[in-house]
Amino acid sequence: MLRVAVVGAGPSGVYTAQALVGQNTVPGIRVDVLDRLPCPYGLVRYGVAPDHEKIKSLQGSLRTVLEDERITFLGDVEVGARGLTPARLLELYHAVVYCVGAARDRRLGVPGEDLDGSFSATGFVSWYSAHPDAASERFGLDRPGAVVIGAGNVAVDVTRLLVRRAAELRPTDIPQGALTALAASGVRDVHMVARRGPAQARFTTKELRELGTLPGTRVLVDPADLALDPACADPSGLPAVNRRNLEVVRAWATAAPGDGAGPRSVRLRFFLRPVEILGTGGRVTAVRFERTEPDGTGGVRGTGRYEEIAAGLVLRAVGYRGVPLPGLPFDAARGTVPHAAGRVLRDGSASPGEYVAGWIKRGPSGVIGTNRPCAKETAASLLADAAALARRPVAPDPVAALRALGHEPVPWSGWLAIERAEAALGDALGRGPVKIQDWEGLRGAAREGDRPGGIPDPGSDIRNPAGSDV
Ligand code: NAP
């Protein structure tokens, strides 16, 4: 039998597990999917915005994979903590696939970035997605102006959430604390600011267009921003997605002043690069930008002209970055683990038994589905190595070894108990399922089965029976 640990239960981890058990060239593979959270699904649970129910419904197909009898979910197990180093993990399994994503935000590197009121958009996303690490976060939502820096899909998500009415979020699984804070929000005007033009923006058209459908919110674009870029006048050479984005932006730029009037506005600004976040008394008051212009190669150059946009809240949505895991090689410039077709490279050579997939392999880009071929490539490398890997002896019972280190894995039945607790919480609030936001609450719900009449002891059925209906 080949025992494989997949570290990370997000899309790349689940697709890797699926690719490993869903083939017939190497029989008898067992995959343990470890996650530092007691909950599976990674960014599908903790990154996809709550009002994107269709994308979130992908959890259903990830769930089917995790309920395969050859796959075991082990939540609340943090690799890198309590002596569970990559080297120790490799003693427990024939192979380990790291699918740990890109857990941090990129920094802007401008003065004022750490003023009160300036936050990473990824932190804001974690907060409204009920990530337990963000449970105690507070965002200054009391002032009317907000600036979102960046022109990717995260920028669009946080912009949308800032202007969405609470009534529209209430039917979602957004945690109650975030819903209450957003309901009381005084934010009225959100400026989403890109350093390049609409022809180079990274958001996708569906997400962009959605900004124009929000009740009570006007989208404003300054036609002068579009006039700066020759590509806006003749978009024929652009990739289809950029062309479509441009069409949407141009329609907003030419809309009559009264169109879509409402109490809130989203202003899309282009060709402005942030140079400083300004504040008074330690609190953000504005962002200073330098006007840029196209450099003819898809980039921009500064013009020496500056502009300030007043804001009480700044969300920096300039991308995620991978975090090094002590004991695993890391390319700090790219924020990824060096690899060849998914095989981890140590000093330029493939490290037997160590693999990567997803954002930690290729960087934080692409949509959820992009992880599928990425995971398949890694699984193919692992399967090609399987005969050699299987010859190495490993611990007979990895779960016992994890417990000996002080980890208490939350099994699939524990996750199902969390789901039930979230449904009960929603019932009590007169809502659908509502996410539990804190570590204590998640762990308490997962271990609910320890009580008489609760779900079975998570420790007693650590192996997940296929399709178990607890
Ligand atoms: P992203 O797509 O890489 O966008 C980052 C944005 O930040 C770009 O506009 C970039 O501008 C800008 N930026 C970077 N450094 C900057 C700086 N120093 N100053 C000003 N602007 C700067 O990243 P993301 O939005 O975090 O998204 C990550 C991935 O998740 C993407 O693949 C995205 O599509 C995906 N995602 C998808 C969805 C969805 O499908 N609904 C939702 C969320 C995220 P330049 O282009 O000029 O570098």
Mean pLDDT: 93
What is the end-to-end distance?
28 Å
Instruction: Work out the helix count.
Output: 18
Q: Which CATH first-tier class of the largest domain would you pick?
A: Alpha Beta
- Structural class, please? alpha/beta
Would you tell me which CATH topology of the largest domain applies?
Answer: FAD/NAD(P)-binding domain
What best-fitting shape do the alpha-carbon axes yield? globular
According to DSSP, the number of beta strands is 18
Proportion of residues in extended strands: 15-25%
* CATH architecture label name of the largest domain: 3-Layer(bba) Sandwich
- In order across it, which strands form the biggest sheet? 3-2-1-4-18-17-16
Spell out which ligands are present. NADP nicotinamide-adenine-dinucleotide phosphate
Number of domains: 3
Gyration radius, rounded: 24 Å
Summary keywords:
binds NADP nicotinamide-adenine-dinucleotide phosphate, disordered C terminus, 21% strand, Rossmann fold, FAD/NAD(P)-binding domain, six-stranded parallel sheet, globular
